[in-house]
Design brief:
The complex is a heterodimer of chains A (495) and B (331). Chain A is of the alpha/beta class. Chain A contains 18 helices and 22 strands.
């Protein structure tokens, strides 16, 4: 497949500018670029969701016009979207055949055929599920696998994967990569979009970098290295991906003793000192998020002690934690972070209303001023303070949420997957902010599934497995292999 | 040039409901010479006062992602009990206080069901609708209470030239506006309705705020009950059926989003007046009352379509942002 001279404009924005792009048969072609670089727009054009203003798509050197996703399917193009499209209340077989249930001459659904095909697919992929099982009972990665099965079952020649690993564990990533290799050997071409550079370099045959709607360069993956790709993406040479600085470490600010939540986590003991960046590694479902949620007062805990500044505190609700100057940025921005329809300013000030509403009235001017100051500090890019937060990119949303907590002048910031789903430039800014924070004498706890960023940014890393802390590593002991050994439970240390 | 245009469209977007109201006012004035008379306009305001007070309660609830379908029944219950109280004690103050207490009690039940038992607000208040109506009928044995004497002062009296219901409406409008714009509670409501999970994770006491919302709604319902019964000169246990819809209509037409998180006091007031003017002009020009219903329904649908369209525009992704726009804002 090949596209040539694709242009696409949205009101006020030139999204794609004269794009030439080709995918060789039986290869993985990675598409890199920051958010807003035009990757998604290009993929939506190839999938028939958008109509290009000009330009041509070729398949096997034959010019084609793709008007909608159904047509794209008929040309053998399948897309696995970043946000999986499935109906949680429907069964596996219904989801698998959604929109294309086989019918007989009278229009009656041929359920027998559906069942037979579904069973065949499930067996083929070694997924131990009942075709009647509802999708909501499956793990995200299995749902993703089903999406891929669905794509292949349409006999796709070109599969577009948009951030396929953003919600699955490392082990599941391996399964996905095996699948990709198998697809390749069958002659299927894959367009792979990801912010995770390690993955891109592992599986890509070719890499194309997009920036501001233009193709910057296309290279075979073997001819190019990570730093070059990142530099091409952001348009400047990134000096150091992780702006880690040595900061003097003080007394323990947060101490956790024997924290337990029955059936979720137990024997949680750790501390975080002033000026430290403490990492939490582990596989998905290891209980890291749950532990942090309990410390922050979002979930109850059954036993143990939380000490802030050496004083035992009892955290029953989020307010208690905030009053103790411990705040948390949730991993799930959409569910526990933003209020989508409200303005960026309101989203930033929602936890500090006492600062702007006092003496029986509100003080919008002070609110604007203070929020504006923090937005400048965080480098938030927004058209205005009144813009609805949902209109911003993920990275900017994250910075608004960080500003929200900075307004509370916290001592401890728990950042749960702070860089998930945001582009390289914004990631770097978040790292830089973390460094700033610890320099100001604050403590940062970073939960992350991306080992390179943990290794790059942290002073110490705790590793969790099955609801328990299995190891604690100092900076000189960091390595992906060691962390993975603790994370998978093959090794265990007394902490 | 393009910047000026951008600002204009934002202005129109923000005040669209008031522009519609103004257009409607002018249109009505042109269509019928009686419309502009002080008498007629006072009449319009008096007629829509009960509905507007209810609309404020519904607005608070809908912004928070809740609803009250029981308000018509609660209004009837508090109205008839208030009259009974007046008839036995002779105290207007006590009668008004009792109405408010009844309104609050009913809404406390709503709040408990919604916040502690996780019953969807729609269902919980639907149950209360039936219960409160039953209680009103039980107490009165289905009979209308007559001989209200001085109780009529609430609905029919006036201070100088201004009728009492309008005074109540103005005062409650000011209170609601103050709550929404100058209290932490008001600001928190938008977050709760906009994304409850985020509100909790931001340290907002969601349960407490939901209670407060139902309590305020109860206060408004009690007052509305007194005004309603006093105006119609009787305690009607079967009165005010479907009044929740009047309130919801006004606030939705006024720009409150049914999915929560969006709505303003002035918008709701404008919505109430748009409906009030519409009713009035159709009466003045002698439009058939059945036709009136059809027109009203169409207007509601139209208002919501407009609202959704403008919202879709607002939520379009901002892909590229020039740095200078942000700095300009900071200034």
């Amino acid at each position: 497949m090949r596209v040539s001279g694709i242009n696409k404009s949205f009101p006020g924005v030139k999204a794609l500018d004269n794009i030439d792009f080709a995918v060789r048969k039986g290869t993985v072609h990675a598409l890199c670029g920051e958010n807003g670089a035009g990757k998604s727009t290009l993929m939506k054009i190839i999938n028939g969701l958008y109509k290009p203003d000009s330009g041509q798509i070729f398949i096997d050197e034959k010019p084609v016009e793709i008007k909608n996703p159904i047509q794209a399917q008929s040309y053998g193009i399948a897309m696995i979207a970043q946000e999986l499209n499935y109906v949680p209340e429907m069964s596996i077989e219904e989801n698998l055949f959604l929109g294309r249930l086989p019918v007989n001459k009278l229009g009656k659904i041929d359920w027998k055929k559906v069942r037979k095909e579904t069973v065949k697919f499930l067996e083929q992929e070694k997924l131990p599920y009942d075709p009647e099982q509802k999708l909501k009972t499956l793990t995200v990665s299995d749902i993703q696998m089903l999406e891929i099965i669905k794509a292949i079952s349409n006999n796709a020649d070109i599969v577009i994967m948009d951030e396929p690993t953003s919600a699955i564990t490392n082990r599941e990533v391996e399964v996905l990569f095996e699948k990709i290799a198998e697809l390749k050997s069958r002659g299927v071409s894959i367009i792979y979009i990801s912010h995770k550079m390690e993955e891109v370099f592992r599986i890509a045959d070719d890499i194309t970098v997009l920036r501001d709607g233009t193709v910057v360069e296309t290279h075979p993956a073997s001819d190019i290295d990570l730093d070059t790709v990142i530099a091409l993406m952001v348009g400047r040479k990134m000096e150091n991906v992780y702006p880690k600085e040595e900061v003097p470490v003080g007394d323990p600010i947060l101490e956790i003793k024997d924290l337990e939540s029955r059936g979720v986590f137990k024997d949680i003991n750790f501390y975080a000192k002033k000026g430290e960046i403490v990492g939490f590694a582990g596989l998905m479902g290891a209980g890291r998020t749950e532990t942090m949620r309990a410390i922050f007062g979002l979930d109850p805990y059954d036993g143990g002690e939380i000490k802030v500044h050496g004083k035992p505190v009892h955290i029953k609700k989020v307010r208690d934690s905030i009053n103790n100057k411990v705040v948390m940025l949730s991993e799930d921005r959409r569910r526990y972070g933003i209020v989508p329809i409200r303005s960026v300013m309101e989203n930033a000030s929602i936890s500090s209303l006492d600062k702007f509403i006092y003496g029986g009235r509100s003080h919008p001017r002070e609110e604007k001023k203070l929020v504006g100051e923090y937005f400048d500090k965080m480098n938030v890019k927004t058209p205005s303070l009144e813009t609805a937060i949902q209109a911003l990119s993920g990275g900017n949303q994250q910075k608004v949420l960080l500003a929200k907590w900075m307004l509370r002048d916290p001592d401890v910031l728990i950042l749960d997957e702070p860089t998930r789903g945001i582009d390289v430039g914004a990631k770097f800014e978040i790292y830089r902010l973390m460094t700033e924070l610890v320099k100001e004498g604050k403590t940062v706890i970073m939960v992350s599934s991306e080992l390179p960023e943990l290794i790059g940014m942290c002073d110490r890393i705790y590793v969790m497995n099955k609801g328990m802390i299995t190891g604690c590593l100092n900076r000189d002991e960091f390595s992906q292999e060691t962390i993975m050994r603790f994370a998978t439970g093959t090794e265990k240390a007394e902490v | 040039m393009s910047k000026g245009k951008f600002k204009n469209s934002k202005f129109v977007e923000k005040y669209s409901i008031f522009i519609v109201l103004l257009a409607m006012f002018i249109l009505c004035a042109v269509m019928n010479e009686n419309f502009l008379s002080v008498n007629n306009l006072t009449n319009v305001a008096r007629q829509l006062s009960v509905g507007t007070i209810i609309a404020y309660g519904e607005m608070l609830l809908v912004i928070a992602g809740l609803i009250d379908l029981s308000v018509g029944s609660v209004l009837a219950l508090s109205g008839v009990l208030s009259i009974a109280c007046y008839q036995s004690t002779g105290s207007l103050v006590l009668a008004l206080v009792l109405a408010v207490v009844i309104g609050v009690l009913c809404n406390l039940v709503n709040a408990v069901l919604v916040t502690h038992f996780d019953v969807p607000a729609f269902i919980a208040t639907l149950a209360m609708q039936t219960m409160a109506r039953g209680a009103a009928l039980l107490y009165t044995k289905g009979q209308n209470l007559l001989q209200l004497k001085d109780f009529t002062i609430f609905g029919q009296g006036s201070v100088g030239p201004i009728p009492m219901p309008i005074i109540f409406m103005v005062v409650i409008t000011i209170i609601t506006w103050y709550i929404m714009n100058h209290t932490r509670y008001g600001r928190s409501l938008y977050a709760i309705g906009g994304n409850e999970g985020a509100a909790i994770a931001s340290g907002i006491n969601v349960k407490k705020n939901k209670y407060i919302t139902y309590i305020i709604n109860g206060v408004f319902a009690g007052i509305a009950g007194v005004l309603f019964m006093s105006r119609v000169n009787a305690g009607l246990p079967n009165g005010a059926v479907g009044y929740e819809m009047e309130g919801l209509t006004a606030t939705i037409v006024g720009g409150t989003s049914f999915s929560g998180g969006v709505g303003t006091t002035m918008g709701t007031l404008a919505g109430a007046f748009i409906i009030g003017f519409l009713n009035n002009i159709m009466n003045l020009t002698g439009v058939d009352s059945y036709v009136q219903q059809i027109v009203k329904g169409a207007i509601i649908a139209f208002a919501v379509v407009l609202d959704i369209r403008s919202k879709n525009k607002k939520t379009r992704k901002v892909i590229l942002v020039a740095d200078d726009t942000k700095k300009e804002e900071a200034k």
